[in-house]
Design brief:
- The protein has 116 residues and is mainly alpha-helical.
- It has a single domain, classed as uncharacterized protein sp1917 domain (Helicase, Ruva Protein, domain 3, Orthogonal Bundle), CATH 1.10.8.290.
- The termini are far apart.
- The protein contains seven helices and two strands.
- Strands 1-2 form a two-stranded antiparallel ribbon.
- It is globular.
Length: 116
């Protein structure tokens, strides 16, 4: 499968959709941001910088300070694929984020989403 289209998409173009998905289900932008911070190691300022610069997904994850050591605890199906079985590491990171936002929208507690 050619994932280059996804990799070249700007994170800023997808970020509002994450927020909309969460807010439709009564969750908040702050919770979306907390998930992104947990997964990538970014903080409010560095996340905002990537949004303003329209960083693509490939660079967004390549420049992440530190992928959370508990990402291996993220399991399940997103977009028809088991996240733990995705071999392409970059696509796996993108799907990790999709999965966490999906769990947020489904009403899961933040403690469980952040694998605490």
């Amino acid at each position: 499968m050619d994932n280059s289209r996804v990799y070249k998409m700007s994170f800023a173009s997808v970020y509002p959709h994450y927020i909309t998905k969460a807010e439709r289900k009564g969750r908040t932008k702050a919770e979306v941001d907390e998930i992104i911070f947990w997964l990538t190691g970014y903080n409010k300022e560095t996340l905002q910088k990537h949004i303003e610069e329209k960083t693509n997904f490939e660079s967004f994850f390549d420049q992440a300070p530190q992928l959370n050591p508990n990402v291996s605890k993220i399991t399940g199906v997103i977009c028809g694929y088991r996240v733990e079985e995705i071999e392409d590491r970059l696509m796996q990171k993108v799907r990790y984020l999709d999965k966490l936002i999906d769990e947020l929208a489904k009403g899961k507690a933040m403690e469980k989403i952040l694998r605490k």
